[in-house]
Design goal:
Layout lengths: L4 E7 L6 H9 L6 E7 L6 H11 L3 E5 L5 H11 L4 E4 L5 E2 L3 H12 L3 E4 L1 E5 L3 E5 L14 E4 L10 H4 L6 E5 L29 E4 H6 L13 H12 L3 E4 L6 E4 L15 H15 L3 H22 L2 H14 L6 H19 L5 E4 L3 H12 L8 E3 L9 E2 L2 E4 L1 H7 L4 E4 L5 H10 L7 E3 L4
Parallel strand pairs: 1-2, 1-4, 2-3, 6-12, 7-13, 14-15, 14-18, 15-17, 18-19
Antiparallel strand pairs: 4-11, 5-13, 6-11, 7-10, 8-9, 16-17
Helix pairs in contact: 7-8, 8-9, 9-10
């Protein structure tokens, strides 16, 4: 059998999630795949669950990693892979049944080195449903396993994300590109604005020949700490044919409520700095530093700002010193920190005032603002959302309706508008001012 896709699954102590993850990969409508499970010494039963699946499905290979590093595990998997394309699944997530069939066909049709697809973020527990059906096994299949189906219901309750779940499952469509960038091959060097798009390496496929010929590997730092960012940056600077697809229904399912995820770990505060040092080193080795210096600096600033904002108290100021040492801040550390505190205070005043409050922008930054407000039990003060993406109009996010901008300022002429976009904040401001919204009714901050 010609292997079309090698799926790499790094794992370490993910027993609450590995069953659903493996089932979703085994159920792919594209059958010509191999499933490379790279376990780094799990002690919670994860390895045993994988081994049981491997006994049922000849496409699964269980490989043991002696090093607890997602970067090392990924590189181990790349070295072992035999498929035409490489797929990546984090083992607390899962994928839609038609994901790899869709991605493989698109990659072939467009001769793409990288193809990325919209995906769905989710949170909440799973409910058991029908067993894995006849024919879903690659081999004869000894015994049947329960496939974990998902359901939509009430919004995530206070504290659910921090505690790792609870409530029934909710989904949120996530775009990986701007509208004009879909369904056409892109040369990232010619359109460097793609570097501002969603950095989700697991949402797609990569030509194995492309990765090998360009020596694209992950940084082998300990643990699971942003190694995907270096891989993503290398892939984009080397690619000549990048393709974006807009089919979240057949895409990746990214878990938001795993409390052990690296994005929730303050222990990994400076790992982002190590990763950007790795990216710079790679650019210099490839002779691409000057070409991508401005893009690198912009992304580094945005990632460091995000890391700073998730910290609290003395940790914030300590990291801010490193922030300033590697980035150009327009003001002193003390003034920068004071401005962020002022942003929080002004946000509180707006939320607890008497006028309607609307969030403009439902992209990654807008969602982070919503998540921040939810974590502070402040979502009840938001009237609605608005976005320029017409496909979102009439939908709801976190239980809030998404209106067209024209309708938002028609229905709520006295509203305050909140926006947190790092990349499009200036354009949003100009759009609102042109519509007649007063400067005093705009809040543009980065508190989340």
């Amino acid at each position: 059998m010609t292997i079309k896709v090698s799926v790499i699954l790094p794992s370490l102590n993910v027993s609450p999630y590995i069953e659903e993850c493996l089932q979703s990969v085994r159920r792919q409508t594209l059958r010509e795949i191999e499933i490379l499970c790279i376990d780094a010494g799990s002690t919670d039963g994860t390895r045993e669950i994988i081994a049981a699946h491997a006994a049922e499905d000849s496409r699964i290979r269980l490989l043991d990693s002696k090093i607890r590093s997602v970067g090392y595990q990924m590189n181990f998997g790349l070295a072992a892979a035999q498929g035409e394309y490489i797929g990546i699944v984090e083992t607390d997530d899962y994928i839609a049944p038609g994901m790899y069939e869709l991605l493989y066909a698109a990659a072939q049709a467009h001769r793409a080195e990288i193809v990325l697809n919209d995906y769905q973020a989710f949170w909440g527990e799973t409910t058991k449903s029908a067993p894995l059906g006849a024919g879903d096994h690659a081999s004869s299949g000894r015994g049947e396993r329960q496939f974990l189906e998902t359901t939509k219901s009430a919004p995530l309750g206070a504290g659910d994300r921090a505690s790792g779940g609870g409530g029934e499952r909710q989904f949120l469509n996530k775009s990986v590109a701007r509208p004009a960038q879909y369904n056409r091959p892109i040369d990232p060097a010619a359109e460097q604005e793609v570097f501002d798009n969603d950095m989700s390496i697991w949402a797609g496929l990569y030509s194995r020949e492309f990765l090998l010929s360009n020596n694209i590997r992950e940084n082998e730092t300990p643990g699971a700490a942003y190694q995907d960012q270096g891989f993503w940056f290398q892939a984009f600077v080397c690619a000549k044919r990048l393709l974006y697809l807009q089919n979240a229904a057949q895409g990746y399912r990214y878990r938001l409520d795993n409390p052990r995820s690296s994005v929730h770990s303050k222990r990994l505060t400076y790992a982002i700095c190590e990763e950007f040092s790795f990216i710079k080193e790679q650019l210099e080795k490839r002779g691409l530093w000057e070409k991508y210096k401005a893009t690198y600096k912009r992304l580094q600033f945005n990632r460091y700002l995000w890391n700073y904002l998730r910290l609290e108290g003395p940790e914030q100021l300590q990291f801010l010193q490193r922030f300033r040492a590697e980035n150009e801040l327009p003001v002193s550390v003390e003034e920068f920190h004071a401005r962020r505190r002022q942003e929080k205070q002004s946000l509180q005043a707006i939320l607890h005032g008497n006028q309607p409050v609307i969030i403009f922008g439902c992209g990654s930054d807008g969602i982070r603002l919503l998540e921040y407000l939810r974590s502070k039990d402040e979502l009840g003060h938001i009237t609605c959302l608005t976005d320029n993406n017409e496909s979102l109009h009439g939908t709801t996010i976190f239980g809030l309706p998404v209106l067209a901008p024209e309708r938002a300022w028609r229905d709520y002429p006295q509203a305050y508008y909140l926006f947190a976009s790092l990349n499009y904040g200036g354009a949003i401001r100009q759009q609102l001012l042109a519509a007649g919204v007063g400067q005093e009714n705009l809040w543009a901050g980065h508190v989340c």
